[in-house]
Request: fold
Amino acid sequence: MSRIVAGAAGGLRLRSVPGQGTRPTTDRVKEALFARLEAWNMLAGAAVADLYAGSGALGCEAASRGAAEVALVERHGPAVRVCRDNAALVHRALGRDDVVTVHRGSVETYLADPAEGPWDLVLADPPYPLGERELTAVLARLPGRLRPGGVVVVERSARSPEPRWPAGLRRFAHARHGETATWFAEADEAPAGDTAGTPPAGTGTHDDAY
Reply:
């Protein structure tokens, strides 16, 4: 069973999706990922899209840590029901019910809707069987859909190759946590003078291992 690591709902136990069809992010990986995002001031007041949400654990963690709006995108019925239950649990902890929304349908359909976005943070934790070509096609929909300083995080097996970033996205960091790798990308260019939410000066391209 997953849990919220920190924030207003810290310690809250979340429901898991039954069966073997989803691969939940471990608390260790989640803690390292969100510690980095908080250090970059990426969460407070952020608009977040959690693609391939599974149980919604990543998006719920973002909501607990101060995100203003979180979209959980999931197509499979049992996982959608768990997302809704977990969103309700987080809302009770937050004392409000307008932060986390659940979108049932494919990631491709969600991203094709011009009414969705822009986002400060996009979390993509696709199932391991998803091919690199399919992932590349999804990432290609993100340039121009991020707010200035917005970041895309892709979580994959450490055995998977680096995602193929489309024109408009630039990888600036990578971390490995055992069998899990996380990749961080941002828009190639941001409006002059607008640095809100960007990684701290001097972060640069770097790799971390845990």
Observations:
- Strands lie at 47-51, 69-74, 100-104, 119-124, 146-157, 169-177, 180-187, 206-209.
